[in-house]
Amino acid sequence: MKINTDPKKIEEVLSRGVEQVVDKNHLAEKLKSGKQLRVKLGVDPTSPNIHLGRSIPLLKLRDFQELGHQIVLIVGDFTGVIGDTSDKDSERPMLTHEQVKANMEGYFEQAARVIDIRKCEKYYNSEWLGKLNYHEIGEQADQFSVAEFIARENIKKRLEGGTRVSLREVLYPLMQGYDSVAMKADVELGGTDQWFNLLAGRKLQEHYKQEPQDILVGPLLEGTDGRKMSSSWGNTINLLAEPNDMFGKIMSIPDGLIIKYFTLATRAPMADIALYEKEIKSGGNPRDYKIKLAEYLTSVYHGDKEAKKALEYFVSTFSKKEIPDEMPEVSARDIASALVESKICKSKSEARQVIDQGGVKINEIKVEAGDYAAAVKAGDIVQKGSRWFVRIK
Questions:
Q1: What SS3 string covers 183-245?
Q2: pLDDT for 321 beyond 70
Q3: How confident is the model over 283-299, as pLDDT tens digits?
Q4: Is 42 helix (H, G, I), strand (E, B) or coil?
Q5: 41: helix, coil or strand?
Q6: Higher-scoring residue by pLDDT: 215, 146
Q7: What's the confidence (pLDDT) of residue 322?
Q8: Taking CA 227 as the corner, what is the angle to CA 150 and CA 148, rounded to the nearest 5 degrees?
Q9: Are 145 and 5 in contact (CB under 8 A)?
Q10: Dihedral class, residue 92 (left if φ above 0, else alpha if ψ from -120 to 50, else beta)
Q11: How is residue 67 annotated by DSSP?
């Protein structure tokens, strides 16, 4: 495939949604040279779903792919068991091999919604990490000092607070770094929270007599509650979310994130985004631009037809306060069971919590706090908040 060396395209790849590049001048020259680069991204399957926050480096991977470079996607079935502590204020528990295996089913299929998976090299990092012996791990560990590891902000904070830091966590950067050695990566993509791990790849490549990779780091995306998008916090917008759910969740993000979402999670022209930003600052209603965003993203992941249906559903259900004609149906005798059976709530405890918070209605009548056994019958409409409805059959 011919390499695209258009200076404007290269500049956008190096600037849009980018926090830092090491080494930017070096990478820019490589991109201008016309040589095909190997561009790597690793994703740990810590949950079954890829969300919009993780779409940011995937979109950047696609940017490189569209320039004609060879992209490499690694699903961290080995590192996923160990656990990356880069963005955690406490020790991340080890996952079992069974949990990781279940989580990673469909990861490449989900990624295919963003990148051309047919032209992407795909790997699981157990292929090489699982073969390392103690001597090799010791040799890699010798390239780093404990001081370098504990100087990281979140680790330093935990140590000063008396929170346990396991030796297992110290090993994670070596593993991600060795992925770059195994792939002979020219470029690695990641988020700002992975800075130490990305630099580890450069150091290990030097040790193994490879040219150190360039690093392109993107910002983190906030979720529906304004905190970093994370499956553990339940504030994600998943790529596999149903169209109505995706649309509704995007409409629930804080107004201050509209332009950031457009910039990072879409490939809408930057000139259009700059215009939206100017119009919002000049008094434009943020809701109108949030609708544009929701329709755009829903169309990307579900197609134009489903996006328009989701828009109509949102307008009729949330703007006009109407109950939708179509909704899931479940069999249940009490309100708590109905919420769990419909998967509106993950558990009975969550169902009791939302009932106590006053967020559940039966036929538009609020269920009183503590009334978890409130009876439901065929034909009843159960509602949680303003977005979820289910009919009892």
A1: HCCCEEEEEHHHHHHHHHHHHHHHHCCCCCCEEEEECCCECCCCCECCHHHCCCCECCCCHHH
A2: no
A3: 999 999 999 999 999 99
A4: strand
A5: strand
A6: 215
A7: 66
A8: 10
A9: no
A10: beta
A11: T
Classified by CATH at the fold level, domain 241-319 comes out as Tyrosyl-Transfer RNA Synthetase (1.10.240)
Choose which CATH entry (3.40.50.1820, 3.20.20.30, 3.10.290.10, 3.60.20.10) describes domain 329-392: 3.10.290.10
More confident residue, 379 or 138: 138
Question: Out of 3.40.50.620, 3.30.1360.170, 3.30.710.10, 1.10.3210.10, which CATH number does the structure's domain 7-224 have?
Answer: 3.40.50.620
Q: What is the pLDDT of residues 233-285, one digit of tens each?
A: 788 999 999 999 999 999 989 999 999 999 999 999 999 999 999 999 999 99
Q: Residue 168 in 3-state DSSP?
A: helix
pLDDT, residue 87, reads 61
- Angstrom distance (rounded) from CA 31 to CA 47: 34
Instruction: Quick: pLDDT tens for 157-192.
Output: 888 888 888 888 888 999 999 999 999 999 999 999
Q: Which two tokens stand for residue 236?
A: 């994600």
Alpha helices per DSSP H over the chain: 7-15, 24-33, 52-66, 79-82, 97-104, 107-111, 126-129, 134-141, 146-150, 153-160, 167-183, 195-207, 243-251, 258-265, 270-281, 286-302, 304-314, 335-341, 348-356
**What letter represents residue 367's amino acid?**
V
63: which 2 tokens? 């940017």
Between 4 and 320, whose confidence is greater?
A: 4
| Domain boundaries defined on the chain | 7-224, 241-319, 329-392
Interatomic CA distance for residues 126 and 18, integer angstroms? 29
Give the separation between CA 216 and CA 198, rounded to whole angstroms: 9
